[in-house]
Amino acid sequence: MLTWPYAHLLINHFPVVLSVSALAVTILAQLLGRRGLWLTAMGALTASGIFVYPVYFTGNKADDALNDPWYIHSGVIDSHKDAATFALWVILIVGVFATYSLWRSLKKPADLIPRWMRAGVVIGSLAAASTVARTAYVGGKIIHEAPILQLQQPPPGLSPGVAAEKHDSASDRR
After folding, report:
1. Tens of pLDDT along 32-50?
2. Rg from Cα positions in the chain
3. What is the 8-class DSSP label of residue 100?
């Protein structure tokens, strides 16, 4: 069954990979000065901007679905959400700039990509990669630093390999 937390985990890597890839390609574009590399960086930033809202949306739905479970440190999800909100706005702005830059560059294929546009791609890829990396790092803490992972033995009544006991009472079926 596809749940909101699972849906979020399925798509949350797209902005991370696209933003970090855009930064790597931007560095290559700076070093080699190739138009195709600049266009690729712009395309990756555009795609990152497209994916960032669905990731943010599923993250909010996952937060609502989890409802601060006992096995996650209090406040970690909120810290991730704060970082995600900042990354959302940064990547949306960068994505709009990259989309315009890509459109303009493809519209005039014989022209050099203007210096201001290349500078915007450099700054945008740095901003996108850094904000999404921070968001991913804080998001990783949700599970990786969960108190239950520090236990040597499962809590009483919880057998190893089981996240939660299934209940089959009449009240659960209503």
Report:
1. 999 999 999 999 999 999 9
2. 21
3. H
